[in-house]
Structure formats: C-alpha cells, structure tokens
C-alpha cells in the first residue's frame, strides 16, 4: 500500500534503518521468518473453513474427523510463530532504542556547554523517555505492519483462490481509504511535535518545583505553584486531546469503509449462491477471509498516524545528535607545549549567545605567571566565573585570546588542554560511585596507591578508609554519605591526583565548621603549591596572599596589583575590603 508520505519521512526512516536497525541483522531475520509464518498460517484459515463446510454439506464422513485436528495444528503453529514474532520484534526494537539513547547521550555529553544550557535538564531527560517511547511504539507498529501486509497478501491469495471475481470487488474498495489516512497523518505529526514539546516543559516545571520544595514551603508558595502546575497540565491535556481527536476520527472511518466492502461482497455472494453458482463453503470461506483481513487492514490504516508520532520524536532526537559542537579542535591541532603553566588573558572579550546586550567580558588582560596565584575579585556579575570557564574552553572567546605557555588555547588539542587543568568549584561534585572511582576519575588509570596518596594529601584518607567497604564504598547520590567538608576534600584529592599545571578554583563563600575548614584549607594549600592558580576569591586571606589581584567590574579589569598596592590606590578593591565583601573568618 504505497502512500505519499511527507518529504522528510523517507530519509528519517532510511537513516534509522541504516544506523540502528541494520546492526541487528539476525534479530531482523528472525522477526521476518516468524512474520512470514504467522501470515501463512492466517491465510490458511479461510481455506480450512471452506473445505470443512464443503465436506459437511457433502456428508463426507471419512475425512470429517480430520478437520478439527488440522484446525488445532494450524492454530498451535500460528501461536508459536506469533510468540517468536513478538519477542524477536521487541528485542530488535528495544536494541534500536538503546542505540539511539546511547547516541543521544554521547552527543549531549560532548555538546558545547552553551548548547546544553539552551534546554532545561528535564527537557533533555524527556527525550530519553517520552520521545523514546513514541519511537518505540512507532517502530513496533511499523514492523508489525510488515506482518499485516504479508497477512493481507496471504488472505488476498486465499480469496483469489476461492473466487477471483469477488476478490476484484473487495480490492476496488480499499484504495478509497488512502486519501484520509495520509491527510490525517500529516496533522498528527504536527500535533505530536507540539505534544512532545509540552511533555518536556511539564517535566521541567515539575523538577524545578520539587527542587524548590524548601522555598515553596518557607514562602508559602503552594497555591502559586499549584496554579502554575494546573496551567501546565491543562496545556498538556489540550495538546493530547488534539492528537486523540485526530486519531479518533481515523478508526471509525476505516470501520465504516470496511463495512461497506463486506456488505457489497456479501450482497454479490448471496445473489450468486442463491442462483446456484457457488457453494456454501466458498461463501463462508470468503466472508471469513474478509473479516480476518479487516483487522490487519485497519492496523495498516492507522500505521501512518503512529509512524508520524514516532517521526516527530525521531527528528527531535536527531536534531540534538546532529548539532555540531562549535568548540572543536582545529585540524592539525598539536598538544599543549611543555611549560610551567603561564596563563595569559590578552584583550579577552566574550558575549553569551543568549545573554543581555552587554558583553560578559570586554578587553580583559592579565597574566598569571607560572606557580603564582591570581585572585579574581569583584561584585557579582562582574564576569569572574565566565573568565574561569574560558580557560578549559567551555566557551570560546569572542575577541582577543587566552594563551597557556605561549600557545593560543584554540590551537591545541582539547585533550591536552583539559588534562593540564583542574577545576575545583564551590560545590564539590561527587558521583554516585565508589570513593576510589570518585578520586581516580581525576586521572584515569591511577593505581590504588596513587589514589590513597592523593587522599592523604587532601585529608580524605582517614574517613574513606573507615567506610564499611573502605575506598570501595559507594558514596551515594551527590555524596550523601559524606559531610560538606568531606565532599570538598574528596574533590580536592581528585584535583591533586590530576596533578595539573593550572588550577581553577572557585572558593566557597561560606566557611565550614572550624575543624573541616582547617583541613580543607591545608589540602588547598597543598594543591596550590607550585601551580598556577586562578581563584575566584571570597576570603580575605586568599586575596591577601595572592600574587596578583584582578579587580573586575562589568566584564573589565578595573585595577590589578598586590593587596598593599590596591589598598593604597583606594579604588574598587579597597572599597570591597572596606565593605567586608570578603569572608574574614580565619580557621581556628
Ligand atoms: P561573576 O562570576 O563575576 O558573578 P558571571 O561570569 O557569572 O559573573 O557573569 C557575568 C555576566 O554574564 C553576567 O551579566 C551574567 O548575567 C552573564 N551570564 C552568566 N552566565 C550566563 C549564561 N549562561 N547565559 C547568559 N548570560 C550569562
């Protein structure tokens, strides 16, 4: 049944077939064999019915006992084939979905930070669940459609064998159904894309709301959140209803058309049998064939609708997979040259893709000499985090250049650049994995001894060693087994193990309890020793000890120098110190 499908349908399916389905050739072959068997056995039903009725009417007692036996054998064989078919189809379909999920995840983990930030995390997550479910359903239905086509072909052969004239009458009626089927398919695809978008938005609003549970209660925002959720649910209901209404009109239409076909055939048959031209067996067999064929034919009719929903999901998934990262290596990029870690910001400008009109950084220039510490200070929104993010090329500068040991970081390989850098943020990131793995990921391939050395240097050995399974204890989601200070020490051990040329540090704004604080500060001092450090400083002790202070405001370096010199100058930095913008508390 050839249907004129929307232009992009065929390439999408062909791509899925080539990239995913063909990887599972044996599964596809198995599904096809079972499908052919199911279709073959189904096609035998009308013939068996015709034979039995003709034998009954002929009072052929000798073969009469044979009929029930044959029926049992055929149904048994068909059931077995059906089971094999369902399992084979699902195992291929689920592997295809798994493959797509893998590709999507790989694309997202390698995508530019800016690209990932465009969608809410929950919208990304929905692509793996909602869109994947749509694709799975469409894929299952499409493969089942092959079975249906074969079944219809088999039944058509039966009908042809039983009575070719009637066969022609029945066939003439089917093509009438094609026009509405394709028209509705297009509408469903459009509606479905909107629905998937809505699903993603719903997921985003829900996660956001649950994450804010504390604030919602404290500020008594329950009613406001309920109203927001109600609006989202209503939107979702409307877009779902839109799809269901379109879909709902299809089945009754096909049913009605089927009814007309059956009526026409029966009228003709009745006339023929009553005028003595056919047998009761032929009549019954033919009507049975028509009735059996009506289910697969209807399924084929609604296939296009399911297919369009799946394609909406598939094109949204491929859109993410196909987005080319903009932060890529130049062809012929070389490894970062050896050096001691001299970092130079040379007239750096940067503008966020979706930021406000102002540039986040403009004409920012300073030099971090090897082994020295540069403290970035300034009011919130001055561009400190942005400046730090440029060093490992999480974003690319839009003007000027960042150089490490003389090399523009855009000219060197991403691997060598990022291997030379460790980042320690305000919130210690702990993966839901073992203590060992959480440190070893700083330098893959590190030995147990090296990991333990790093942990000792970061004052993390003592508490990791006494966990129930020692270093092999899983730390829980977000490191729920550890205290705040312990988490920071684990993340410092990770950075120490990495042994980077350059350390990027976003200092914690609030002090921990005195004991933890002292241990964290000691670990930090060990980490910073002999390394070039760029630190977003929140502590007075850090800025005071820094070799260079860069005071930033609105993306520019307003002044640079040592603590003493800048205090003397009495500018932005002196003002920040005076207004106690820095945490003063020295560890006990
Ligand atoms: P700081 O770290 O000094 O507080 P940031 O580097 O975070 O400052 O921000 C500098 C400017 O860039 C601010 O005006 C901020 O609003 C903007 N900005 C930061 N992150 C983004 C982003 N992901 N998209 C758009 N604008 C951003």
UniProtKB/TrEMBL annotation:
This is ABC transporter ATP-binding protein. PANTHER family: ATP-BINDING CASSETTE SUB-FAMILY B MEMBER 10, MITOCHONDRIAL, ATP-DEPENDENT PERMEASE MDL1, MITOCHONDRIAL. GO terms for molecular function: ABC-type oligopeptide transporter activity; ATP binding; ATP hydrolysis activity. InterPro entries: AAA+_ATPase (IPR003593), ABC1_TM_dom (IPR011527), ABC1_TM_sf (IPR036640), ABC_transporter-like_ATP-bd (IPR003439), ABC_transporter-like_CS (IPR017871), P-loop_NTPase (IPR027417), Type_1_exporter (IPR039421). The chain crosses the membrane at residues 28-48, 63-81, 143-161, 167-185, 253-271. Keywords: ATP-binding, Cell membrane, Membrane, Nucleotide-binding, Transmembrane, Transmembrane helix, Transport. The keyword Metal-binding does not apply. It is found in: Cell membrane. GO terms for cellular component: plasma membrane. It is a multi-pass membrane protein. Residues 29-309 form the ABC transmembrane type-1 domain. The keyword Transport applies. Residues 343-579 form the ABC transporter domain.
